[in-house]
Structures are given as structure tokens and as C-alpha cells.
């Protein structure tokens, strides 16, 4: 899935803070956006879906961060808790996408996300056929609704910008993948 989809999913979870602790809803959303994007920072530098993706281990951070945020609620502890949650959900949900090849719609790569605990790749389920697929955009659009409808200001603007970036990426995703495959990039 696209990083923007993962970030939008994070905002869905952060929106749960609105009725419980509205004063922390914005830090929760911003932490979730950052946590939703964070695992994909490994895409261009090192082994994507292996270096910063931890489908099992981020949950330990979630188990530590949420009690801290509940006992000592500050903008930072709440943001950190939702950062950890969004990173954990991102890492797990990548197994529901396509493989890692330049053209994942060809189903030619059996790597979904790396399990450091098991020491092996988890196969892609392809419920979202590939990052930047129309189905991925649909998930991004639906998951953007809380950011667009329940928040205002910065969170709403970031949610709108991420949705626009998602739509643009869907338009160019296959041409980029085909170009990369032809030129061994």
C-alpha cells in the first residue's frame, strides 16, 4: 500500500481520541501520520519492507507507549503512542498488499513483509494488488474521511494533501514500474 494510505489508516485510529481526549486529538493524528509513513523510509536506502518494517516488534512499543500516555498524557506521549500504533499496523498490513517487484501487478515477487521474529518473508496476500492500485486509492480515500471530516486545520490539510498525492501516484504508478522493469532500476 502507499505510504499515504498507511498514514490515513493511522488517522482513523487517532480519531478515536476525539471523544475521549479531544485536547490530544491533533497530536494523536500527527503522530499517527508520522508512524504510518515511517516504515516506508527504508524504500530507497536499504531493504524495503525489511529494515524498518517490524510486523511483530512494533506491538511491544504500542504496549509500552499507550500505558505511558494514559498515565502521563502530554502531546508527546500521545503522539508517540499513536506513532507506534500506526507503524505496527503499517508493518502488518503490508502483507495484505502485493510483492516487492518493480511490477507487483505481475505477481512475480513472493515477498510481502519481512518477519524479523520468524527470520523469513511473509508472502503477500494481494488484497490490495499493489501500491498505487485503484483499490489502494479506494482504501486511502475511505480512510481519509476522518481526517477530512472530523478534524480541521493542519490535520485536515495534511489529509487532503495526502489524498491528492495518492491520486496522482495512482496515475503514474504503472508507467513508473514498467519503465523501471525495462531499465533494470
Description of the molecule:
This protein has 7 helices and 2 strands. The chain has helices at 3-14, 17-20, 25-37, 58-71, 75-93, 134-149, 153-182; strands at residues 113-115, 120-122. A hairpin with a 4-residue loop joins strand 1 and strand 2 (120-122). The chain is globular and about 50 Å long. The mean pLDDT is 94.
Enumerate how many helices there are, as a single number. Answer: 7
Note the main sheet.
2 strands, antiparallel
Q: Approximately how much helix is present in the residues?
A: 55-70%
Using the alpha-carbon principal axes, give the shape: globular
Specify the structural class. Answer: mainly alpha
Organism: Halobacterium jilantaiense
Protein name: LexA-binding, inner membrane-associated hydrolase
Topology record:
Blueprint: H1 3-14, H2 17-20, H3 25-37, H4 58-71, H5 75-93, E1 113-115, E2 120-122, H6 134-149, H7 153-182
Antiparallel strand pairs: 1-2
Helix pairs in contact: 1-3, 1-5, 1-6, 1-7, 3-5, 4-5, 6-7
Q: TL;DR of this structure?
A:
The chain is mainly alpha-helical and 185 residues long. It is built from seven helices and two strands. The protein has one domain.
Amino acid at each position: 500500500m502507499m505510504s499515504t494510505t498507511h498514514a490515513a489508516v493511522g488517522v482513523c485510529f487517532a480519531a478515536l481520541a476525539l471523544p475521549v481526549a479531544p485536547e490530544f486529538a491533533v497530536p494523536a493524528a500527527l503522530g499517527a501520520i508520522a508512524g504510518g509513513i515511517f516504515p516506508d523510509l527504508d524504500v530507497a536506502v536499504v531493504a524495503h519492507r525489511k529494515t524498518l518494517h517490524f510486523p511483530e516488534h512494533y506491538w511491544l512499543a504500542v504496549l509500552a507507549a499507550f500505558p505511558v500516555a494514559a498515565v502521563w498524557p502530554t502531546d508527546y506521549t500521545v503522539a508517540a503512542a499513536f506513532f507506534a500504533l500506526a507503524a505496527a499496523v503499517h508493518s502488518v498490513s503490508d502483507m495484505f498488499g502485493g510483492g516487492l517487484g518493480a511490477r507487483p501487478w505481475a505477481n512475480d515477487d513472493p515477498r510481502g513483509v519481512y518477519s524479523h521474529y520468524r527470520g523469513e518473508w511473509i508472502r503477500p496476500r494481494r488484497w490490495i494488488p499493489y501500491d498505487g492500485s485503484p483499490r489502494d486509492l479506494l482504501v486511502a480515500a475511505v480512510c481519509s474521511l476522518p481526517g477530512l471530516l472530523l478534524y480541521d486545520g493542519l490535520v485536515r490539510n495534511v489529509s487532503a494533501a495526502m489524498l491528492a498525492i495518492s491520486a496522482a501516484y495512482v496515475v503514474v504508478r504503472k508507467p513508473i514500474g514498467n519503465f523501471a522493469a525495462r531499465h533494470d532500476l
